[in-house]
């Protein structure tokens, strides 16, 4: 009788340990691949070691508002459209 109760408790405890380890491993993988990229979540967890990009100086941003339109490659002479007045 006591052997079956002990075996049942052992199985329950082993199952809980396996589930806990699986959840811990899953959290670690998701943290490394995705969640550590967010500064807000790093501050919540208190992780100061994975601040990879913050030690580098910020790159100057390019002002796109001065451009008249989307950036295009210069056209070759074959691609240019010649107005009919100039062609004659």
UniProtKB/TrEMBL annotation:
The keyword Cell membrane does not apply. Residues 48-88 are annotated as: Disordered. This is Small integral membrane protein 13. It comes from Synaphobranchus kaupii (Kaup's arrowtooth eel). The keyword Transmembrane applies. The chain crosses the membrane at residues 6-30. Keywords: Membrane, Transmembrane, Transmembrane helix.
């Amino acid at each position: 009788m006591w052997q079956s109760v002990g075996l049942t408790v052992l199985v329950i405890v082993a199952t809980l340990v396996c589930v806990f380890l699986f959840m811990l491993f899953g959290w670690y993988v998701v943290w490394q691949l995705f969640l550590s990229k967010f500064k807000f979540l790093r501050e919540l967890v208190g992780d100061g070691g994975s601040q990879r990009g913050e030690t580098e100086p910020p790159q100057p941003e390019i002002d796109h508002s001065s451009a008249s339109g989307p950036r295009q490659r210069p056209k070759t002479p074959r691609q240019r459209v010649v107005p009919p007045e100039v062609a004659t």
